[in-house]
Each structure stands twice: as C-alpha cells, then as structure tokens.
C-alpha cells in the first residue's frame, strides 16, 4: 500500500469494498474532496503535462473510419495509436493495442485490486477520441479530448496510489467518432461492460471559462441509392432513366419538408454519383442523409417521414443509429461543484440538445456517464467543424483549459471509486432515466 502523501494525510488503511477508512470510519462524501486531494492531482498533472508529447497534439490526425487503408492517412493513424499507448505504458498502465480487433482502438488500464477478479471494487472509465475531419484536421478538437483522457487517467492513477484508493482505471482510445461511430462497435464488443461509470470531455465555443452538460441530437445515417438506365443525352435521351433527376427530386422534397420541421430536428445530406458526365444520362445516384432529432425515439419516427418523401428510392441502407446524450445528473452535480471550486470555471447545466451528435450518446445508454463540454477561445463564426476551430484547438490557451477540465473529470471519477453512497445515487439516476428510451 502506498504511503500517505502530502494532501492525503487524513487517509488511512485498510480498504473496504472500494472505500477508504478514515480513522476507522468510512469516508463521508464531505471527506472525499479532501481525501482525493486536488492538490495531488493538480501536482501530478502539472508535473506530467510537459511530458505529454506535443506530438500528441499534432499526431492524432486519425482518418475517417472508411479510409483506414489509405496509406498516408493510415500512417498518421498508427502514429496516433502508438504515441498515447507508449506514453501510458511508460507510466505503469497495461496496454492493449488494436483493442477488440479495431485497428485504431486501444485500451490502457491500471489497477491496485487484489485479487484482480475481486468484484466489490469499482472501475472508472475515461475516453480519448482522436479522429480528425478530412482536409480540415482537428476541427472538432479531438486532439484535446485525446490528451484530456490521458491526463484524467494518469491523474486518477496517481491519486489512487498516493491516497491508497482501491479500484481500477481504464482509458479507451475510441476511434472514428465523426465518421463510423467507433464507440458503437466497441459497445457491441463489450468494451464498456467492465466500467461502473465513464467520463469524457469535449471542446466547444462559448463564454470564457464555461462548461456545461447539454445533450446532443440522436442521429440516423441513411443512404438511398437510385438506379436508372444510361442513354446518350443528346442522341436518345428518351431511352434513359435519369437517376440524378430522381435524387434531386427527393432532395427537393426533403428541402420542402424542412419548413414544417421542428427547430430541434435536422435533415441534411449530399448527392453522390459515379462516372458522371454531362453528355450521359446518369444511371446511378446516391444521397447520404443524416436525420437528427433530440432523442433516439424521435429519430426513429422522423426517419420514416424522410423515407416516405423519397418514394423513388430503389435501395435504402440504414447505418447504426447514434443516440442522444443522457448525462447523469449525479455526476453532473459533482462535476459542477468540482469545476467551480478547483477549475475556476462557471458551469451551466443546459437542458435540451445542442446541434451536434456523438457516438458517446450510445455509451450513455449503457452505463452512468458524463460528457461535459468546455469552452475554448474561438474566432468569430469558428465553431466546431471549421478550419478556424482547428486553429483554436491547437493553441496553448485551449490546452491549458483542457488540462484544467481533465483534473476535474479525474476528481469526479475518483468520487465514484471512493464513495459508495454517491455511486448508488448515480446508478439509481441511470436506471431511472427513461428520457429518449427506445
Ligand atoms: Zn467532436
């Protein structure tokens, strides 16, 4: 057992079911913040942060999911896989590369539980997203999420060692959030079953030093393919069946539908083809739609309407549905208190969905979770998914805020390990949350 460290002097042994005994009494929630010692976490993060290779910042240029085998991007992808795993390995974490047969996924873990199979001890999970957007790089700031996850897991481990907190910490490197929904695959393969709670963080624009836990939109990707018949456009157009016209008619129908849609709902898409030429009647076209609504339940109803409007369709393919974010109220309250006290950040528990979507929404249906957003300085009209945001997510200011939030994520997670009553409440909140249930 690790000796008590400065900042942890009130802590004593032994462990009891993942809790800590303090002079013979189980620690109360009030003690938790003093026991977990923000000083300890802040100290270790401050000490280790300069060691986090700056390469992490530029090296996490992971390609979209479908383009895994494209060689130049594949190389940067493997680089992004290599750097954080090696770094965490050097800090005592066990490493599983290419986790669950996903080439870009990884898992690093640390535990002081003995025997390792002991089930009465809790496991806290964190996520590091890494993927970038084609051509515009880290326009969603996933480089900050990658490093934030590393920092949170590292700080948690150090606090556990220094303060003698029993438990397990797991950090997943989760690929393809923006294209491919890698977390849905990880869920299907059981990656989150070992965790009792999971936390991650995401940068956004917003007022200086602010954070929040709004929801996100559920999303259903749909592909509609149109098959026609080619013809010489100038010689015998009457022999053709124009798939591009079919696609445009469907697109126009959906566009007309938008004026009757609720402001919380979204449908947007693009038309694609193959071997098109202006002097040939196109025999193939495809529209890739993204149908969004505040909850997974609503998106199901809504996609039916969208499908009906594309009555010309020949083939319709639905990709895995991304769910809305269900933030755990207990975790949100704890995080709000922590970030106000130790991060100097104003917290807003925003209700309703923000404009975007995330595959972490599906994780929130699996176990108690928290996905706070935090504001970084941005340029005017430079929200997520713009080149301006790529620049904003690479600044020293953004990284300083990210580390500050990572410390607070770590503090929130530590309470899950320490405080059984707190864990019972957040579990109850999870079980009772039927918003958006399918
Ligand atoms: Zn994102």
UniProtKB/TrEMBL annotation:
Residues 224-301 form the Peptidase M20 dimerisation domain. It holds the Pfam family M20_dimer. GO terms for molecular function: dipeptidase activity. InterPro entries: Bact_exopeptidase_dim_dom (IPR036264), Peptidase_M20 (IPR002933), Peptidase_M20/M20A_hydrolases (IPR052030), Peptidase_M20_dimer (IPR011650), Xaa-Arg_dipeptidase (IPR017144). Belongs to the peptidase M20A family. It comes from the Eukaryota. This is Peptidase M20 domain-containing protein 2.
